[in-house]
Amino acid sequence: xxxxxxxxxxxxxxxxxxxxxxxxxxxxxxxxxxxxxxxxxxxxxxxxxxxxxxxxxxxxxxxxxxxxxxxxxxxxxxxxxxxxxxxxxxxxxxxxxxxxxxxxxxxxxxxxxxxx
Length: 116
Known about the structure:
By secondary structure, the chain is mainly α. It has a domain at 2-21 and 43-83. Helices cover 53% and strands 0% of the residues. It has three helices and no strands. It has helices at residues 2-22, 28-32, 48-83. α1 runs antiparallel to α3. The longest helix is centred in the middle third of the chain and has 36 residues, at 48-83. The mean pLDDT is 77.
């Protein structure tokens, strides 16, 4: 189930990126009013391309949110099932003090001062 949701999620993301890339910005509408845009020659009619792309982008974005949420819920269920599986949890141990040792310094050859 997770793999199917993940595949749909990736496909929605790629298609959403494509739809966003083919949309024209708001500044492109000014050029279309002077006859340079060719808006009446589009496949969607003189007013349809903006509405079609905007609506489709919104639907794809909603689908992406739904699949993201579904993947998050599935990941949480997986995490809960791992913690319920009896895997030991690391517990915090109280602070233990080590016994103190008396250190004695043993002189070595390097500790002897050199006189010339």
